[in-house]
Amino acid sequence: MEFDIVNGKVRERTFRPFVEFYTHPMLDRAESDKQGRRVHVDTTYIKIRSQGAKDFVSRKATDEDTRNFQTEYNLFNTNVEHSGTDVALIVTTPSDLADILALGVNSVEKLAEIEVLPENLIKYRNNAKAYMKLSEFTDGNQIDGQGQEPAISNNC
C-alpha cells in the first residue's frame, strides 16, 4: 500500500485507471433483418486499463461509466461532435494523426483552414485543400472556371 499526505492527513493513495471512450460499430440485428442486409450503428465503448498494466477491458459504455469518468467522457464528446470529413481519411501515419488530433483538428475541412502547422504536417493541409477542391468539383461545380480536377499529392 502507498500513502500520500493530503492537507496534513495520511491517506491511502488511489490509482486512477487509464480510461478511453471510443466509437465502435455494433450490428443492429433488428434493422439488419428488416433491411435484408447488415446494418451497423455507432456505439460508445470504453477501454479501461489499470496503471502499469498491459491488458485492458473494452466493452459497451454504461451511464455509470460516463458519470465515473466524466472528464474522459467530455473529452470524447468534444472529439466526436464535429461535422465534416474525418481527418483520418487523408492522414497516412498514426503518429501524424495523433499530432493533428492533438491540435484540436478532427476534420479535413478544419485542416484545410489552418495557417500555421508543424513542418511534418503541412503536406496534410495541402492534401486537405486539394480534397476540398476535388469535392467541390465532383459536386458539379467548376473550381477554376476550366473544369480541371485538382491533383492530390502522393507524397505523404
Lay out the secondary structure:
Elements: E1 3-6, E2 9-12, E3 18-27, H1 29-35, E4 40-49, E5 57-60, H2 63-68, H3 70-80, H4 94-102, H5 108-113, H6 122-138
Antiparallel strand pairs: 1-2, 3-4, 4-5
Global shape: flat
Number of domains: 2
Low-confidence stretches: 140-147
- Average pLDDT, to the nearest integer? 80
Q: Can you give the helix content as a percent range?
A: 25-40%
Number of strands: 5
Strand content: 15-25%
The rounded distance between the terminal residues' Cα atoms is 49 Å
Largest beta sheet: strand ordering: 3-4-5
Rg result: 22 Å
Tally of separate helices: 6
Query: Would you tell me the structural class of the helices and strands?
Result: alpha+beta
Q: What is the H-and-E element order?
A: EEEHEEHHHHH
Largest sheet, in brief, is: 3 strands, antiparallel
Walk me through what this model shows.
The chain is α+β, with helices and mostly antiparallel strands and about 160 residues long. It has 2 domains: about 70 residues, no CATH class; about 70 residues, no CATH class. It has 6 helices and 5 strands; from the N terminus they run E-E-E-H-E-E-H-H-H-H-H. The strands form 2 sheets. It has a 3-stranded antiparallel sheet, with helices on one face. Strands 1-2 form a two-stranded antiparallel ribbon. The radius of gyration is 22 Å and the shape is flat. About 5% of the residues have low confidence.
